[in-house]
Amino acid sequence: MNTQFKKGVLEMIVLLSVYKKDMYGYELVSEVSKVVNVNEGTIYPLLKRLTNEHYFETYLVESSEGPPRKYYRITYSGKERMNELLGEWNEFHETVNNFIKESDLHEER
After folding, report:
1. Considering the chain, what is the average pLDDT of its residues?
2. What's residue 103's pLDDT?
3. What is the DSSP letter of 55?
4. Is 65 helix (H, G, I), strand (E, B) or coil?
5. Per residue in 70-83, is it b (16+ CB within 10 Å) or e — as a string?
6. Which residues, 6 or more positions from 32, have their beta carbon under 8 angstroms from its beta carbon?
7. On the CB side of 109, how many CA atoms lie within 13 Å of its CA?
8. What pLDDT, on a 0 to 100 scale, did the predictor assign at position 5?
9. How far apart are CA 34 and CA 24, in angstroms?
10. Helices (H), 1-109
11. 3-102 has which fold?
């Protein structure tokens, strides 16, 4: 996938993932990678920013496999941001699709 496309939708995908259920970092990397190929070096700075902007809050849960895991939970502000991004995405998607249809690219020239 084009890097710029990925960058444009990554925040929305992360917000949607945590909206579905609270997740810890590595779990979130795995979930997001089902949609776009990302690594921890991409996700963790985004999680830090989203937490600093109060879209996520964090809490620790003990783990039988090592140290406690930091879980991310979406906040009310995070849900508002997610809905804002979804609205922008839907409008953008519709506009681009309409443009493609109107350009008759699907017909052989």
Report:
1. 90
2. 82
3. S
4. coil
5. ebbebbeebeebbe
6. 10, 13, 14, 17, 38, 43
7. 4
8. 72
9. 16
10. 3-20, 25-33, 40-52, 76-102
11. Arc Repressor Mutant, subunit A (1.10.10)
Query: How far apart are alpha carbons 63 and 58 in whole angstroms?
Result: 15
- 7, 77 Cβ separation under 8 angstroms: no
Helices 25-33/3-20 angle, 10° precision: 120
Within 10 A of 43 (CB to CB), how many other CB atoms are there?
A: 20
Domain boundaries defined on the chain? 3-102
What pTM, to 2 d.p., does this model score?
0.85
The pLDDT, as a whole number, for residue 93 is: 86
pLDDT in tens, 21-37: 999 999 999 999 998 88
On the CB side of 14, how many CA atoms lie within 13 Å of its CA? 31
